[in-house]
Amino acid sequence: MSAKQSLGRGFDTLIPTDFDTSILQEDTSRVQKLLITDILPRGEQPRRDFDKNELAGLAASIKRHGVLQPIIVVRHGKLYRIVAGERRWRAARDAGLKSIPAIVRSLQELEQIELAIIENIQRVDLSPLEQAMAVYKLQQQFSLTLEAIAEKLGKAPSTISNMARLLQLPDDAREALQEGKISEGHARAILALKGSPTKQQGLLSCVLNNGWTVRQAEQFVVAAKKGATTQQALIRTASETTLTKRLSQKLGRQVRVKHTAKGGQLMIHFNNEKDLEKLARQIG
Asked: Is 114 known to be catalytic?
């Protein structure tokens, strides 16, 4: 399941109730075939260089399957100028296509959509994934870079980048975040293990089943990135082990262990100075 497929319904919450949602339609009633020769590249396209190998691969795919997602254009005199989808347009041209599916929007429509998304992405009741989906829409609909989106939203580029990365979560982690079972901090820890699905799943399971804090999740990530297997990372992250349970029973108090890069720390709980003196006598 793609991020767009699993979060498409959430995008509806970004649009005010009095907004003309008909301009968002991307169904067959709005898609039309335009001659490739009638289309101009975007003048201020932020991406000036297109990888030749990537374009060749996309062109080959288009020859087999066609253009699956329409490009977005606006009228430019008797021609059209690309708003989003220049890479698809270039690849379709290289593939020898004469026409390409496109959605023609007016500048007024684009301004309304952009303004609605920007205003509503600031809403406090939006989930992290809904915010990420809004960033995705700004990228797709307007070919905006993350830096440009950050400027429009008055946020740091790193904040927008972290927001957008949430769509890269595995499906089950994305679902857990959407349902509030894990926090955004947990999600970022899982993302840090991208490329290691087994370790991502192991970390998610521990957060869900053992109630791990974000700090514990980060400890797991540190161990995993140092080459530890999932099981080894679990042992190094565990705050309670068989040994600490035995100590807890013997001392009658909570005992936890915190693993570090070299060794670790044994943490024994006490209530006050008098209780600390009692603990010292127990140990002595």
From this structure: no
